[in-house]
Amino acid sequence: MIYTILILFLLGYMIYGLVQVLKNKSLTLMSKVVWIFIVVFLPVLGTAGYLRTTFKERHGRW
């Protein structure tokens, strides 16, 4: 249950961030690309890093 809430929160954060970046008229195209990269990939990289430290390989297998 808690993982479902966390996934929904993460997806909501990503969608909200994308909408805010795309609606901002004062940003240039390159700035929008950078902000979209930050909004989408930082949570993904953080989650991947967390999972990598939580689940360790044992004898070459999970």
From TrEMBL:
Residues 15-51 form the Cardiolipin synthase N-terminal domain. Keywords: Cell membrane, Membrane, Transmembrane, Transmembrane helix. InterPro entries: CLS_N. It is a multi-pass membrane protein. It comes from the Bacteria. Pfam families: PLDc_N. The keyword Transmembrane applies. The chain crosses the membrane at residues 33-51. It is found in: Cell membrane. This is Cardiolipin synthase N-terminal domain-containing protein. It comes from Pedobacter frigoris. The lineage of its organism: Bacteria, Pseudomonadati, Bacteroidota, Sphingobacteriia, Sphingobacteriales.
